[in-house]
Amino acid sequence: MTIASPTDVLRQILEILERERREGCRNRLVLGGLDRYLAVWLPRLARSLPPRAQEDIAEFPFRAYAETPPAERPQWLTEVAAWLRETAQPRAAPPPRPRAARAARAMPPPSDSITLETPISALRGFDRRVIPAFRRLGVETVRDVLLFFPHRHLDRRAVVPIRDLSLGTDATILVTIWELAERVIGPGRQLVEATVSDASGTLRARWFNQPWVARTVRPGSRWLLSGRVESFKGRLELTVDDYEPFDEEGDRTHAGRLVPVYPLTEGIAQRTVRRLVKSVVERYAALLPEPLPAEIRRQARLMDRIPAVRAMHYPETPTELADAKRRLAFDELFILQLGLQRAKAEWQQAGYAEPIIVPPAQIDQWTNRLPFTLTTAQRRALQEILADLARDRPMARLLQGDVGSGKTVVAAIALAAAVTAGGQGALLAPTEILANQHRASLGRLFSLLLPQARVEVLTGAVQGKKRQRLLDDVAAGEVALLVGTHAVIQEQVTFKRLLLGVIDEQHRFGVAQRAALRHKGVSGQRHPHMLVMTATPIPRTLALTLYGDLDLSVLDELPPGRQPIRTRLVPPEKRERAYQFVREQVRLGRQAYVICPLIEESEKIEAKAATAEFDRLRHIFPDLRLGLLHGRMKPKEKDAVMIAFRDGAIDVLVSTAVVEVGIDVPNATVMLIEGAERFGLAQLHQFRGRVGRGQDQSYCLLLTDSAQESERLRIVEQTNDGFALAEEDLRLRGPGEFFGVRQSGLPELKVARLSDAELMDLAREQAERIIATDPGLEAPQHQLLRAEFQRIWIEGTSGDRS
Fold first, then answer.
1. Which of 103, 627, 710, 796 could be bridged to 650 by S-S, CB 3.0 to 4.6 A?
2. Nearest to 627 by CA among 653, 647, 592, 665
3. Mean pLDDT across the chain
């Protein structure tokens, strides 16, 4: 069928829409579906329509009908047909200003009924063609639009004379448009070319696949054009990305200013997002409340919220943009810290703790009995812990230290203080094998500090009469220190007088486990002090975010005399030499780890990869004893393999990342990591910490097939400082990648950067001050802050952090 006129094209499209509705909206009327039909015929219709209608049709989401639920399709068809009748009736193209005026008249005036929770479907411009795309971007209400911030800005303020344009640069020019021509350059591809000039010269400008430009841009008019300076047949040309009619008093959107660049999704264009977001910001930003009290804004030197939101979208200067980012980033960090500090205050105020006061002479006596001297970092952390223990509010402290930094000794002295005060201590470890290891190490330390104190272990392996006797002794207070797994926090375990609970490898436990141990206190409102430990070097700013409800002590130095682990990057051509080195170390009586990369977030695939590597290495090392460890194994199977490795029955342990936290194997001197580029720097450092625990020199070999990653991996090769590596890891990969998954239960950060230590400290300081004086945020000046806090923390998050 030949369509003779645009009117015929429109009539045919409307008939198809009506027939689709009559036949049940099954999307079977035309071959390939209605979306495919519209994708062919709407562009044909657009060629004879006014420029604004052409631009609207070009942004039509051609997959919208198929994605619409069947029950809603009749309404979709009705709305699209009405839009076509209103927008797509062929007519002469009006000049730009009357067209804008007509569009304004067609839109409803601002309504007093609009609130921050009003859905975007009630706003002008947000019709059925763009709403699905905005929803995919997480934008559903007026508030969402206002807080839908661009991820960057293009600096298009500087207008460059044509004569000063440089090949390969992005530039903005202010020119007069002269000749325009439109032509087809391929199937579905159009080109609009224009001759443009300013006082310094003449240039050709090009628009690809934007045919409406030929009717939007009129000869003789002045425009701001932004794009890439390229070369064609030896002459400079501008490939236009954005354009704006020039008006001395005009409010620019796409060029001649700092231009926002928003996240996009299928079915919507950047120009459309800018136009719609800008209209909402101009009309409704004033609806946003100001949650920060004036005193905080003054002390922190922060701009007000409404101008900050406006500037975040359309700033006048880079300084204004920086100020807006600082204000909005502070808001996020402040609300985050409010929640964390409030949680800490709630559990500390829900009960009290018995003060544990030990004379300094006793502490000196204990440290003098140790066969080594405490580091400055250990002494500093111990002082912080003892100061907390001396108070009548429960301690909540995180002891963070690299592998080998001496956390266990600090914890042992704190536990000895609790026992000396007439109480008991408990230490919770994530696995049975680690619990037994802690029992041995703490037993040795207590034999020096408090030789008469009884140290026991409780795990799932302790059963029957032996278990009952142990539970009775704990309840009677005869066991001074109980070390164990989750078995320690089971309901049938009761303490006579638990004064201090310690949790090792904090990231392996959830808040529920910490709370369960805390509730093992003596009675009523009396809670034990809590110390949690982690060997993961977490950058300070990130630790204040993830564990903001805990005070932080850091062991940032290693005991003297500890040999640094020699780390080497091994390229593919030297892989055989690495295997030979492993064989030589085993021949000397040593042992080795081989780590396989986590290919996907699937234990099943991870196990398959480890098994395949295990089979391959058995052919490479037929004369050695190999063991296999992966996440699909049962806990008892893992423990059996690790015990066999510890006891020397296995020469080479092939493992996935589950070995990252494991037991001490002093005889293991080689850590060989396959596919090292697949791991983060901090995780590689954790693997490396599995060796170097004995007297012999230890080595870490990073095997990689990626030349691109070599520079990043050399950072691990060059430093043994876990905290420095963690900071670099955070900078390179961001907090989400740093941990593998986003921490659940924490508000999302859209503007703030966790690397901003100054702003984090400022937010934490202000949050602590407010929670100390008004923990319920009940003061009149805190009502708006309370509403914002509840919206973000209570309505906007779910689940416990772990």
1. 627
2. 653
3. 81
Name residue, tokens 């098994």. Answer: 611
* Residues contacting 50, CB < 8 A, separation 6+: 91, 92, 93, 94, 99, 215
Tokens linked to 791:
């919206």
Q: Which residues contact 73 (CB under 8 A, 6 or more apart)?
A: 21, 25, 27, 65
Q: Which of 664, 737, 715 is nearest to 694 (CA)?
A: 664
- Sign for the CA dihedral angle at 498, 499, 504, 506 comes to positive
Q: What angle do CA 520, 427, 337 make, to 5 degrees?
A: 75
* Cα gap 792→801, rounded to integer Å: 15
Phi-psi domain of 106 (left: phi exceeds 0; alpha: psi -120 through 50; beta: other): alpha
pLDDT in tens, 472-506: 999 999 999 999 988 888 888 899 999 999 998 75
Q: Kind of pairing, strands 189-198 and 170-186?
A: antiparallel
Q: Read off the pLDDT band of 735 (50, 70, 90).
A: low
Return the structure tokens found at 108.
Answer: 């409803």
- Which two tokens mark 14? 């409307």
Is 423 within 8 Å of 498 (Cβ atoms)?
yes
The helix/strand/coil state of 237 is strand
Assign 31 a pLDDT band (cuts: 50, 70, 90).
Answer: low
Instruction: Tell me the whole-structure pTM to 2 decimals.
Output: 0.58
What average pLDDT does this structure show over 336-342?
83
**What's the number of CA atoms in the CB half-sphere (13 Å) around residue 560?**
6
Is the backbone of residue 793 left (phi > 0), alpha (psi -120 to 50) or beta? alpha
**CA distances for 700 relative to 689, 694, 772, angstroms:** 9, 15, 48
If you average pLDDT over each of 230-239, 323-332, 432-441, which comes out highest? 323-332
